[in-house]
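Reopening: structure tokens for the alpha-L-arabinofuranose complex, inputs below.
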Amino acid sequence: MRRKKILLLILVCACYSGIVAQQKTELVLNTKAKGVPIQSTMYGLFFEDINMGADGGLYAELVKNRSFDFPQELLGWYTFGNVTLLKENGPFKNNPAYLKLSAPSHAHKRTGIENEGFRGMGFKKDSLYRFSVWARTEDGASQKLRINLIDTHGAIIGHQDLPVDSKDWKKYQVTVKANATVNKGRLRVFLASRGAVYLDHVSLFPEATWKNRENGLRRDMVQALYDLKPGVFRFPGGCIVEGTEIEERYDWKKSVGPVENRSLNANRWQHTFEHRFYPDYYQTYGLGFYEFFLLSEDLGAEPLPVVNVGLACQYQNDSAHCSVPMDELEPFIQDALDLIEFANGSVSTKWGKLRAEMGHPASFNLKFLGVGNEQWGPQYVARLAAFEKALRAKHPGIKIIGSSGPSADGKEFDYLWPEMKKLKVDLVDEHYYKDPKWFLNNADRYDTYDRKGPAVFAGEYACHVPGRANNFMSALYEGAFMTGLERNADIVHMSTYAPLLAHVEGWQWRPDMIWFDNLHVMKTPNYYIQQLYAKNRGTHTASLLADKKPLTGQNDLYASAVYDASDKAYILKIANTGNAPKIIQVRLQGLPKKAVVSVGECSALQSDHLDAVNSLEEPDHLKPQKVSAVYDKGVLTIQLDKQSFGVYRLRV
Ligand code: AHR
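Re-run output (same inputs, fresh job):
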């Protein structure tokens, strides 16, 4: 009690003495006004295989081009000795290429292959790596493969022998321990006997994947996603859904079933930017739709798949060349219906059976479907209408998400919103990659939105500062803007920052929420803003006003509040984008006389430098810190640092 009084005294003195020139802002938190429920999907994730997000990223496979089926068959491989590439009679129909390793010309020579990984392979000292390969011998006589993990300088840091003893194709597996930590290792496989061995699907995973799954995901990266407490998970894109050409769209059916037989696809981001193109960037679909549904379940997030609507990327094709004719749309619609069956159908259905065979007989309980990514124009509207008709007829419970185009304003946006209303989609996906000023100016964007129309899904957004760094300014401004999402949670039902992941040596687009290399993960300040919101989502909106108006930039301040019924707490979020500290006094209006109020955990993200960043070398430079606030006689007093975003919890 004494401590509280002293703290309050300090705050009030600071406020009035003029020692620190701080302005006081008074807010009213109305505890009587009943708020509306906040959707569990309010804050979530959007994942796309851009920036090496899947292969070389979240998907823990260390071998690039493991099936030799890249168009340049040996891309990523270095061969030595007597190696032949074959394509007939291999074990996997959809990935026909495989290799034959034959004895070299001399007993003191060797035949083998080395894989460079995705910008190298990350190995951790004393960790185990699961090597597997499909193989056969010529005649059934036993042969031997030797498996080496190699460090940056070519030294062997792990090895195992693997006997191959059948003339029929079989999967062989062995565990190799790394005796050193390297960020850019390689895998070597060579013939350690005098016969011949045929090889396909050469694979290497860390044993310690997320939940130790064999076809697993990188544990440290999933942990970072898990810690975000996402309520919804949008997948697989993004432009990936559309493809540069329609044949290269994300075809979910190619991404399920045995992993060895999932056919390779191009990656829409492979050649997009001439200053950042990667000829070795493909989609193996190792992280496919089954893995996506499973991960959504692990994360406790509602899965939100996006399906192709019969349009190739509208950025990359003119309108005459991007669309599937209306009378050829049926297979695309069927794909969407089948995807719902794959997620939810009983095990007696064709696609439900496949889900069960893959290991998940229970339904994934899919509730949402994005139809088209960032589409626009009448071509989109016509196709969406056809999809909607079929989807509503067969799955009336599934909520349909339509697009409002590539930008959250302008011609396409103004055309599409009324069309979405006419079609009565459930949610409209808005995308905004905008400059800092836009983010501040749009903190009140949803205050005046039509309450009768479809709900809003802020499906892709990020504040783009000059140079597009993930700096503190971008995070702070996103935090300020998001007070407007929260205040309007009656119509904003979902939001997902974009893009999610980026490999430091393989990115095409920035800013991105999480950066990584082969061994480490770096959370940006933008990540922490998302996390502060998601962890403090609350269950109901609450009214927080300054002079009877929402705080949307007056005196460089932005604020919103929620009520959390499970914790019986009000949670306030306040951003100060100005370069002076502020005193905030929040009066709790309408509290019952006997109410006992206490300050719970409060934290803030702050920096004196708007251009401050986290890096792989200094990942914790910017991180939320605990802060204090004082409650006394119905008033919460907060000392808000300059350039800060704070979250304050008041238990009532
Ligand atoms: O997030 C990167 C890209 O931005 C997405 O693929 C696309 O939907 C948008 O244009």
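The chain has a mean pLDDT of 95. The chain has ten helices and 35 strands. Marking as resolved unless the reporter disagrees.
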